[in-house]
Amino acid sequence: MFLDKAARPRVKCERQSVDAALCSTGRAHTLGHSRELNIIQEQPRAKDLFLGIDLGGTKIVAGLVDREGRIVSRQHSSTQASKGREIVVRRLIDVASQLLTAEGIDRKQVAAIGVAAPGPIDARSGVVTAPPNLPGWRDVPLGRLIQDELGLSTSLENDGNAAALGEHLFGAGRGADHMIYVTASTGIGGGFILDGCLYRGATGAAAEVGHMTILPHGPRCGCGNRGCLEALASGTAIAREARERVARGAPTLIAELAEGDLNRISAEMVSRAAEGGDAEANEILDQAMIYLGVGMANLVNLFNPRLLVIGGGLTKMGARLFDPVRRIVDRQAFPAAASAVEITRAQLGDDVGLLGAAAVAMTAIRELSG
Ligand SMILES: [Zn+2]
Fold first, then answer.
1. What is the DSSP secondary-structure string of 124-181?
2. d(CA 215, ligand 1 centre) in Å
3. How close is the Cα of 292 to the center of ligand 1, in Å?
4. pTM, whole model, 2 decimals?
5. N or C terminus of the chain with fewer C-beta within 10 Å?
């Protein structure tokens, strides 16, 4: 006998929640969510706010977010990563604390805290392992530090996973149980929602979309390998290719836009030059979008998603990005997978970090309540 198609993912997901398999109830015990769950069960309507904290390399943004993804209040601060982790953690706690003590906010309304932080992260134990853009951080138990200080259960995810959850709960991916989120910006990252659950992999290292190899002998990537998607199609890769062409003396508007200064060349400049009809700039973008499309076709073949949500700065190019990606997915992926996938632009824009962090908190609570 066959199960109803629509019911299958839900059944599987609930079982995973209970067994602490994929939906990480294990983390809940480590960080003491169980006690929080009891409180929620006693007061089901009181806790309708989530405190999201987006910890970036240059900026910390925190906000109180309701269940529909509306930002009720927000605070921000510079990260000052170079001053070391104690200072950064202090600033982060101060920003969150200001939100909780602000006039008009009843702390009892806040259900939990979610943090989006640069990876790699051990989400189950709430430990930030060794993020490249936070110097001096090694195995920092950030979840525990925040929880002890603010007295609210705290969950962590890397920024790609958090953004995927944010788009899934509040943005372009609402209602999509099979969704791949990709951010194409200075780097390329992502997060996978499979069967309605965030997929972290065996050790939390899944969804490194930017580091799938596209060209084995291609340009060197920041991770040390060659020809990663990020080294071929990110904003950084586009700017690097433009710099190389300008340095070789290629006839292009980009040199003028950068006023002859190679270091000023950015992907945004390349995009502007391309819009102005510049042949070199158009070639650079064509090439980068082919690689991005190949990467997306690989994901479509691997995961057969219903929805591929692409966010990040490069999506400001609109059809210049989405048209070639769609074309290549249709050409390269298997017809059954290509025809099933809608490719769409992310909706949360610059708030994706903050709303993603709030979604991390909301998801942790939902997983606990089964
Ligand atoms: Zn790489």
1. TTTEE---TTSTT-SSB-HHHHHHHHH-S-EEEEEHHHHHHHHHHHHSTTTT-SSEEE
2. 11
3. 14
4. 0.87
5. N
